[in-house]
Specification:
about 400 residues, alpha+beta, Heat Shock Protein 90, five-stranded mixed sheet, 12 helices, about 70% helix
């Protein structure tokens, strides 16, 4: 099968060589017959007409023009009917299949005119018993030759149509392949952005808790050494949780089926998150009101979780000592409202951080997450002091 495919591909890639070989093979037997008969003019004209087949696909217009001139010469000089006439239907077919549209139509008209001319020439070279019989036979010859011309041209035109359809399908397949490559590239870029947001949220929150615990334990252990074990336990638990999340993300990057995974965090995991923040030394109150009218998708719940996580992480990093925070979730008829506020005076609270792209990476990440679910997010200093983050995530309903 491979050898046959290779041979077929070579025939497709070398049309001139194939057609030239076919023309030479046709010239050999007729040339030998004319040589034996001693008909030199017929041999030259016939050989030249057949050789036009060599350019039937590479230069069909040139081949058709040369054949028309040779046929006119054959009509003018007093020679017998030559075997080169066999090239006429081949060139008509090839011009209709591979030539320009004007050449295809021109060769059809020339073929039909040539059918009449060759029959007239045959009738002039032969004697007929009666005029009626001669006209009848001539008309039949004209019809037969015209049918041969029409058949050759129609077959070539159908070949052209099929070739154009195949070319259109190949072009479409090529465009689809390019579009698939682009879609895969966009999907990979989106996944990289998603993983980057996840890694930022995980690392920023975990390191903030660890740094806060380590700084607090360093001073508290001087007065009360018993604080150190509890603090180290909180640091270890935070590190283990972050390590598990990092392994999950790295498993996605490796696409390793053996990598253990666990469900993405959602609203049900907020209690564990709040316990970790309280263990880090931040006084935190949490309230929840209302009942959900519909379930949020898993991605929307992850977005809500990450917003609360990022907002509390910013409190730990920027609100300063003695800061307090409140977190509130309200289920409304339109969706979920989130609110995280602190009374600190850190760098995050001292300068505005609008909802656009002027905030830090964490705020941009929150904004991008919320936009994916047609939500809204605002973040900035509160009038009463501190920093306020609010978000609205609507129900995803068809």
């Amino acid at each position: 099968m491979d050898r046959r495919h290779t041979i077929y591909q070579w025939f497709r890639d070398n049309p001139f060589k194939v057609d030239l070989g076919a023309a030479i093979l046709l010239c050999l037997p007729f040339g030998a017959l004319y040589a034996v008969a001693g008909a030199l003019p017929e041999s030259l004209i016939s050989t030249t007409m057949i050789l036009t087949i060599a350019w039937r696909r590479t230069r069909p217009e040139l081949a058709a023009g040369a054949l028309v001139i040779l046929c006119l010469i054959h009509m003018v000089i007093p020679t017998a009917v030559v075997a080169g006439i066999l090239a006429v239907p081949v060139i008509i077919y090839s011009t209709a299949a591979y030539g320009a549209v004007w050449a295809s139509r021109s060769v059809l008209v020339a073929g039909l005119i040539g059918a009449v001319m060759i029959v007239v020439r045959l009738n002039n070279s032969e004697t007929s018993s009666t005029l009626l019989l001669g006209l009848t036979v001539g008309a039949l010859y004209v019809i037969l030759v015209s049918l041969l011309v029409l058949f050759s041209w129609t077959l070539g035109d159908l070949t052209r149509t099929r070739r154009l359809q195949v070319q259109a399908l190949e072009d479409r397949a090529r465009r689809l392949e390019i579009e698939q490559h682009q879609e895969r590239a966009l999907a990979a870029m989106d996944e990289r952005s998603h993983i980057a947001r996840e890694m930022h949220d995980i690392i920023a929150h975990s390191l903030s808790v660890i740094i806060t615990q380590a700084d607090g334990a360093r001073y508290a252990a001087v007065a009360d050494p018993a604080v150190a074990p509890a603090t180290l336990e909180t640091i270890a638990a935070t590190g283990r949780g972050s390590l598990a999340e990092m392994r999950r993300l790295l498993g996605i990057l490796r696409n390793d089926g053996d990598t253990p995974t666990r469900p993405l965090p959602g609203l049900a995991d907020l209690d564990e998150l709040l316990l970790g923040v309280r263990a880090a030394g931040l006084p935190l109150s949490f309230e929840q009101s209302g009942t959900p009218r519909a379930e949020l998708p898993a991605g929307a719940e992850l977005t809500a979780y990450r917003i609360v996580q990022e907002a509390l992480t910013n409190v730990l990093k920027h609100a300063g000592p003695s800061a307090k925070a409140t977190a509130r979730l309200d289920w409304t008829a339109k969706g979920l409202d989130l609110r995280v506020q602190d009374n600190g005076f850190g760098s995050a609270a001292s300068s505005p951080a609008p909802t656009g792209s002027n905030g830090g990476n964490g705020l941009r990440g929150m904004q991008e997450r919320v936009k994916l679910y047609d939500g809204q997010l605002t973040a900035g200093p509160h009038n009463g002091g501190g920093f306020l983050v609010t978000a609205h995530i609507p129900y995803s309903e068809a």
